[in-house]
Amino acid sequence: MTGNSDSSARLVGKIGNQVPPSTHMDGLAVSQDLACFCECCTLAPMDNAKLFPLIQAADLEQHPVWETILDDEADDPSAFPVQPLPVINLDSRFVATRVRLANERLVWAMLFNVDLTDSRKTEHLIQLRIEHNEEWFWLARYWDIDAESNGPDALARFLGVAADEVFPIHYDLTGLAAGLPSVIKGQIPKEPRERLPRDEIIRLCVP
């Protein structure tokens, strides 16, 4: 099974100024300019920028944290490595690490919508993009309109295993980001502990 649809169709507003979900919320958090507002970190030189769909595991191993930038002249957003690590802010950024599946297998993943200061918000809004055989799969969350077609069972098929060998998915951002322990180390279950109504999800998206 190949990966599902990629970046442009899944583009959302900058986290913290995210528009309420209408058709699909999963995807990239993007800055509208090149400014980095985090005092402790800087963007890597511009020659390290890559179009988001071209970023592969080798890039992530070298640079685990990226900031995504909208480019009016390109169909896809670009991403720029962020340094030094650990960062204290993941707004408009994604962090990459090997996540551990239930069967102990390690796979590369990009994590989006991680709020280092809010574990409940992260639990419900975190997005996951997983690599397998150089293809990528966006995991739809329970509030996504494509949750049935791109949810946990679809991810399991993409990985070629049963769903109970995939979930829960454990991640550890130690050394990459600094924040609440419950955010730095967490898991994504097949079924959420609670299902928030749509208006609650929207409130979590709006500062």
Overview of the structural elements:
By secondary structure, the chain is of the alpha+beta class. It has one domain. The protein is 18% helix and 25% strand. It has six helices and eleven strands. It has helices at residues 57-62, 119-125, 147-150, 152-159, 181-184, 198-205; strands spanning 30-31, 42-43, 50-51, 65-69, 78-83, 93-100, 106-112, 127-132, 135-139, 169-172, 185-188. Strands 1, 2, 3, 4, 5, 6, 7, 8 and 9 form a nine-stranded mixed beta sheet that branches. The chain has a two-stranded antiparallel ribbon with strand order 10-11. The longest helix is centred in the last third of the chain and has 8 residues, at 152-159. It is globular. The model is unreliable at 11-43 (pLDDT under 50).
Topology diagram in text:
Layout: E1 30-31, E2 42-43, E3 50-51, H1 57-62, E4 65-69, E5 78-83, E6 93-100, E7 106-112, H2 119-125, E8 127-132, E9 135-139, H3 147-150, H4 152-159, E10 169-172, H5 181-184, E11 185-188, H6 198-205
Parallel strand pairs: 1-4
Antiparallel strand pairs: 2-5, 3-5, 4-5, 4-6, 6-7, 7-8, 8-9, 10-11
